[in-house]
Fold each of these.
Amino acid sequence: MAPRNLSHVTEFILVGVSDLPELQVPLFFVFLIIYLLTAAGNLGIIILTTVDSCLQTPMYFFLRHLAVINFGNSTVIAPKMLVNFLVSKKTTLYYECATQLGGFLVFIVAEIFMLAVMAYDRYVAICNPLLYMVVVSRRVCLLLVSLTYFYGFCTAIVVSSCVFSVSYCSSKKINHFYCDNVPLLALSCSDTYLPETVVFISAATNLFFSMSIVLVSYFNIVLSILRIRSSEGRKKAFSTCASHMMAVTVFYGTLLFMYLQPQTNHSLDTDKMASVFYTLVIPMLNPMIYSLRNKDVKAALKRFTTNPCDSFKSL
């Protein structure tokens, strides 16, 4: 007789941000506001950078796709999370859970490398301004964005397939507010060495290469800015990458906080709080970071709100 396969569960239970009944409704409204601000901000960036003729440079092309990624990532997580605040049975179907994990991985990996692409774009703009439109041509922009999405999709297929290749038995309570790698593998009743290794190598590789691109790009940017003799020139050069530097610092700072904690202090509850930040809070903050510190975006928003028809006619 063939060995009996350990049973697959048909559904999981998501513990959520908190399991305290008195916090469910307040948390629902807090995260509803966060999601609505995220949707409004990122959709606003997508619309402005699409319709305004002054925002048709490579920098705003990449910003548009960062907004698409941020909106996609929060939309994969937030709706299910919001529903679970209001229901007593916080279940998610097995394949629904797998789909959510895959969607999350597509967007989070795409965001990691989109930030690296944007750092490279700022490097070329500041260090080689005369060759900027040649080096970062429309074709190159499309290629970089396509590769970012494609790599995110491939990573999602490989990692989520490994995570759901193990057996899940009686325990089905996920100590998280969405289906994520680590809390899922903690429930497995079979050997998790291979999927844990794949998850670790994937995360470490992605962080190493993307951060290397960002650090090398900004090292050269700082050197170029220091060579500029006039204080006005240095200020102008710095202002072109200040928003991106802020977004990168917040995003990578959160990820490094998660992955570089001592094992003795590490817990799934800590992971949950960090996950709230990079899946929901950062996508809400990015449109503010890139618009409040950017004269072009503020001017485009003013033109759009004053006479939106002119923006569409200029395309």
Note: The beta strands are 11-14, 91-93, 173-174.
Amino acid sequence: MPRLDDHFWSCPCVRGARHRSYSTARARTLAAKVGGMVTSSLSGSALRPADGVQDPEPARAPGSPGAGAQTTLWHPHLLQRGLVLFSVGVVLALVLNLLQVQRNVTLFPDEVIATAFSSAWWVPPCCGTAAAVVGLLYPCIDSHLGEPHKFKREWASVMRCVAVFVGINHASAKLDFANNVQLSLTLAALSLGLWWTFDRSRSGLGLGITIAFLATLITQLLVYNGVYQYTSPDFLYIRSWLPCIFFSGGVTVGNIGRQLAMGVPEKPHSD
């Protein structure tokens, strides 16, 4: 015999009510899913910048680290390094020029000679200024080219480079060759050996050649105008080995400037 509850659930009105309740629940579930998708898309678009629009940088406090702080740190370090390089240039000028004057390679007028170091008064400040410019220029060129110099970056190597440079300058005054051409070739080989041993960078080679050319040109003009003179000139008004001294000096001061620049925050630049 069919049960009463079977007749009840098979009734058309009950089936319609069940269908309506199922449809309502399904519609609510679909609406909830659509609402969640819309909410997530709206929140994502609010967090992401529009196409072609960059996120503005967050405002920085005056004391917070940023571009302004880097610029603030840059200038004191630049001044300190410049003063150190100027002092190094003055000391090297006094010592090396003394060797040249004692060997009568360089002759200054008597009225401009400083008796303490047998050198003209203007030589130390000029060499100090040149050393500061060259020593600051080397790391700036490395940073601009994106090729940081990493070969033998320690103070022991820098001191050895200075010693070799002093030895080259001493050899130019002490060694006796049959003619200045042989001496010039020997010093040129020693100068290139100094660059290869302590630098080996393309920027160092290019800057060394440029410094040697400009310094030689300035020296020619000074000697031509009678500021001082060289004995036995064989390259216009100067000695032919002088560009080798300028080249090795530029490499040496450049290594000192690079070593001083280590640990200093680089100044940002726009390509």
Note: The chain has eight helices and four strands.
Amino acid sequence: MGSCGPVGSVRARYLVFFQYLGTDFNGVAAVRGNHRAVGVLNFLEEAAKRLKSVKPVRFTISSRTDAGVHALSNAAHLDIQRRPGQTPFSPEIVTKALNTHLKHPAIRYLDMAAMQEAAQHLLGTHDFSAFQSAGSPVTNAVRTLRRVSVSPGPASPFVLPQESRRLQFWTLEFESQSFLYRQVRRMTAVLVAVGLGTLAPTQVKVILESQDPLGKYQARVAPAHGLFLKSVLYNNFGHPEPVLHPEPYGVQSVETS
């Protein structure tokens, strides 16, 4: 804290921690003179105008991130200079002012019971043409979905523990001898739509029986970055437990007969 500018005015420095999804941003740094690109700090500096600092507030970031990159906890400091006779803002007031402007989107929770009900319509042997993306050379779209489950999942290792406590994670598992091109991702997108209330559980049966891959809802594809190949099963080998290795790539297990 120090004096600067008009006689008696006080400048206070604050350290703020913030997180963001960088998908729509041209990195974290503020972008000047280009209205087609925007940085995370452009939003923060606009929010800081609510504090009516004598001098425009500028954020000094601790770590730059590139376009499209997310941050779980970045940091920056800023100086706020108030008019003579005014006391410095408390950290709580600064936090509230920034968050009020940024208007964090409300967290939407999924209706797990509705998703579980909808998933039952996918079980068994069906023509899954409605869930096959274009470009597949397969001519027979009949597949047997042996198992599908929707259940609460463990916290993500990519989210800070304090954030995990207020977020919900879900695991969707599908088991079949084989899948069509993007079948799992398209089934996931439809089940999530049910969980959000966009679709009723019974509409999943209608979509399946339509055999139309271009329908409004079944044409949606869940992002690939949430998809895992959990295991490969062989007759007489049971259900092997995955073996984790510190290397980024490696053979999980080897069995011979």
Note: The longest strand covers residues 71-82.
